[in-house]
């Protein structure tokens, strides 16, 4: 790591918010930013692991920067501002998973980040890929499973957004055919803290692995 880790972390922080100024409509900007952050959080965590625990200032910075702008402006959040906090916890969990994996293999942090980004993109896109390019349409059960594993579903639904009814998912993923018995949205009250707990556990494991490899 170079002599200016603060510039490195500032770049990771800025890349997480790069989508927001590109959208003219505030509500769409908020949703688009959360979608991008759900994909960028884990790779950013892997890259931030190169500077140690101080790397956690990145997701904290996202929370501080976005709360006044997004909370209360996202569809479904009017008057329920606190739900945005659960989405932020989910982002922290994804960041923690990336940080832990990256910390366990610091020399390969860039490669790890690339793999995590590709994996996140694939998991987020899978629900909407059925029926495209000759692929057979997903069954409702399979589409529901893919939605459960999508990082975008975790973050947006934890933040109180009806992601299954979003135009990017509702038609392409066949969400209109998914019975509530097959899938219910992530509940932010438990999904957000649960994701953060998983992220912290992964980070701790990464620290232990790093310590053993350095011994």
Question: How would you describe this structure to a colleague?
Answer:
With 215 residues, the protein is mainly α. The protein has one domain (5-214). It contains nine helices and no strands. It has helices spanning 5-16, 26-48, 57-70, 83-104, 109-129, 140-149, 151-158, 167-170, 188-214. The radius of gyration is 17 Å and the shape is globular.
Radius of gyration: 17 Å
Which sequence of SSEs, written as H and E, runs from N to C?
Answer: HHHHHHHHH
Tally of distinct domains = 1
Q: Structural class of the secondary structure composition?
A: mainly alpha
Assign a percent range to the helix content. 55-70%
Number of separate strands: 0
Give the termini distance in whole angstroms. Answer: 20 Å
Q: What general form does the structure show? A: globular
Provide the residue-averaged pLDDT: 84
Helix count from the secondary structure assignment: 9
Percentage of residues in strands: under 5%
| Largest sheet properties | none
Uncertain residue segments? none
């Amino acid at each position: 790591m170079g002599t200016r880790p603060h510039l490195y972390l500032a770049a990771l922080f800025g890349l997480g918010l790069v989508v927001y100024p590109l959208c003219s409509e505030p509500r769409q900007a908020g949703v688009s930013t959360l979608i991008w952050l759900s994909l960028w959080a884990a790779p950013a965590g892997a890259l931030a692991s190169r500077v140690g625990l101080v790397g956690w200032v990145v997701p904290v910075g996202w929370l501080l920067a976005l709360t006044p702008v997004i909370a209360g402006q996202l569809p479904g959040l009017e008057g329920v501002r606190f739900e945005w906090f659960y989405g932020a916890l989910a982002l922290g969990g994804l960041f923690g998973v990336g940080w832990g994996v990256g910390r366990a293999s610091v020399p390969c942090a860039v490669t790890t980040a690339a793999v995590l980004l590709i994996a996140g993109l694939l998991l987020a896109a899978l629900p909407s890929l059925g029926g495209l390019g000759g692929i057979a349409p997903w069954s409702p059960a399979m589409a529901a499973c893919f939605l459960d594993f999508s990082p975008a579903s975790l973050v947006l639904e934890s933040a109180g957004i009806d992601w299954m009814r979003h135009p990017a998912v509702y038609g392409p993923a066949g969400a209109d055919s998914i019975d509530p018995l097959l899938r219910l949205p992530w509940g932010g009250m438990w999904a957000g803290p649960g994701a953060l707990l998983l992220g912290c556990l992964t980070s701790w494991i990464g620290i232990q692995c790093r310590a053993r490899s350095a011994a």
